[in-house]
Amino acid sequence: MPTSVQKTSPKHEEIYKEYKEIFKEEITETNICKAQFHKIDTADDQPGFQKNFRVPMHFETPISEEIDKNLRLGIIRPSNSPWCSRIVPVTKPDVSLRMCIDYLP
Asked: Which segments of the protein form a coiled coil according to its record (predicted)?
């Protein structure tokens, strides 16, 4: 159970325990929602494209592992789209990596 959840009311704790597969810290095949297809309507906007920048060496392996895991789980897929934004790795308080996207032009 996530540490942030441990300080909740007993009623909420019961819900978290009953549906613990949904509230897992780790993303797996069992807690990915595939009920809705997500599409972003870009209308007639010109594709945004950002060149990649160098990632610090200590982030290279965790980023590759996270991308491979997300590809394997079907969360992301390879794309040849003209739209491109860079990955911004952010270290979380527990030292794990959060993958963010910089959508600014």
From this structure: none
Task: Go through 61-99 and write b for each residue having 16 or more CB atoms within 10 A of its CB, e for each that does not.
Answer: eeeeebeeeeeeeeeeeeeeeeeeeebebeeeeeeeeee
| pTM, entire model | 0.61
pLDDT digits (tens, 9 = 90+) for 46-100: 888 888 788 889 999 999 998 998 899 888 889 888 888 888 999 988 888 888 9
> In sequence order, which residues have a C-beta less than 8 Å from that of residue 54 and are 6 or more positions away?
none
The full set of domains in the chain, from first to last, is: 1-38 (no CATH), 40-105 (3.10.10.10)
- CA triple 5-7-12, angle to 5 deg: 60
Run of H or E including 69: helix 57-73
